[in-house]
């Protein structure tokens, strides 16, 4: 029997500032998964309130000297998580322990039993679905090095199939604030690009 598909927000590299349009997408998801370089407790709080359930890992910049908020929130973040979903397991790590050269091959070799591997670190959107496991990078969901604007992925995980859609937004104008900074107007949400 097929269980219903689960809608999962996949994001990374907020570095203390969550784009409000991505937080809005989380409201329609059963789960948000952050692949590290979170940067602030406020990012975790916003995502948990929006999605209802949040899982996150620690990135190379998630260190006490840079963390905004209680250090206990930072210390609670693991380096890797395995997320059981309908149809398979999503493995999540930040990706900084694998060199950029052949990173996708290295991640596939490290997690051969996964349905997909989610990582961050590079701030570059990627959907490598030509081989198993899929390798997914949602780009940067904050302001730092967004490569054209903040982005994320939405995963529909069902027992029979998984589907990933890419969401990338125009960069917010200078002076606009992300959600962890309070008080920003929300531009309209664009239509997604589908892949995988």
Automatic annotation (TrEMBL):
Pfam families: Metallophos_2 (PF12850). This is Phosphoesterase. Its EC number is 3.1.4.-. It comes from the Bacteria. InterPro entries: Calcineurin-like_PHP_lpxH, Metallo-depent_PP-like, Phosphodiesterase_MJ0936/Vps29. Keywords: Metal-binding. It comes from Immundisolibacter cernigliae. It is an enzyme of class 3 (hydrolase). SUPFAM superfamilies: Metallo-dependent phosphatases (SSF56300). The keyword Ligase does not apply. The keyword Glycosyltransferase does not apply. Its cofactor is a divalent metal cation. Residues 7-157 form the Calcineurin-like phosphoesterase domain. Residues 187-196 have a biased composition (Pro residues).
């Amino acid at each position: 029997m097929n269980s219903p598909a689960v809608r999962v927000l996949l994001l990374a590299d907020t570095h203390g500032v969550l784009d409000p349009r991505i937080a809005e997408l989380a409201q329609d998801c059963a789960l948000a998964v952050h692949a590290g370089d979170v940067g602030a407790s406020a990012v975790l709080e916003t995502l948990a309130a929006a999605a209802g359930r949040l899982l996150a890992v620690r990135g190379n910049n998630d260190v006490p000297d840079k963390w905004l908020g209680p250090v206990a929130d930072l210390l609670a973040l693991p380096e890797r998580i395995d997320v059981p979903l309908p149809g398979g397991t999503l493995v999540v790590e930040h990706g900084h322990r694998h060199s950029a050269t052949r990173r996708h091959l290295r991640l596939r070799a490290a997690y051969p039993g996964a349905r997909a591997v989610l990582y961050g670190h590079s701030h570059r959107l990627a959907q490598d679905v030509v081989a198993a496991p899929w390798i997914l990078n949602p780009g940067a969901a904050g302001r730092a090095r967004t490569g054209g604007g903040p982005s994320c992925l939405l995963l529909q995980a069902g027992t029979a199939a998984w589907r990933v859609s890419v969401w990338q937004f125009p960069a917010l104008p200078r002076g606009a604030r992300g959600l962890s900074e309070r008080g920003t107007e929300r531009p309209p949400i664009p239509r997604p690009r589908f892949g995988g």
